[in-house]
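User: Pentapeptide repeat-containing protein, Rhodosorus marinus:
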Amino acid sequence: MVGFVHGAGLGVVGSGRGRVVCDVKLDDGLQVGFGALSLAVALSLGSGLAFPACGLADFTGAQTKVGSGAASTGFSGSMKSVTRGVDVSASDFSGRDLKGVSFQQSIARGVNFSRANLFSASFFDADLSDANFEGADLRQANLELANLRGANLKNAIVEGAYVVGSTKFAGITIEGADFTDVFFRKDQQNYLCSIASGVNPVTKVSTKESLLCPE
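Assistant: Predicted structure for Pentapeptide repeat-containing protein:
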């Protein structure tokens, strides 16, 4: 079975049961490994990506699709790609243009997203524990149900991101992060205000001000 991704479209999608045990490299050198029950992660970085039949080419139960919007009631719009259950832990996406890409329900522990363009990206129900978002553009990102325990959002721009009460922030670093127009549950806001410091170097907005922290 071969799947092909170019731009925002997925050419061939298959089904079967088993696991993929190969690494795939994009034209610009980005390499991604695929684990159990994952057909593809379509990062659409402006170049084609082919998925050869490798390992056990039997994919029943894998779910890969391209559709409209993220898996959230709060967002709508076209997404470049949608992946479910993909494990990209410890990957290096620093400085990448990942605008609109969805990592929904994926495992992204310790991933390096520093300085990445993640505008309108979806992390719906994703495990982002210990991920590095330093200096990243997370404007209008979907963080619904996301686990951000221990993540580094230093100097990140999170303006207008979608957060719900079950989004986890324990142990997060937010020095210089800009959360303008992000709506938090009161206990989330209180916790973030208790650790907030710094001013975003791009927007020039202080973290405390963006969180509407009391004087």
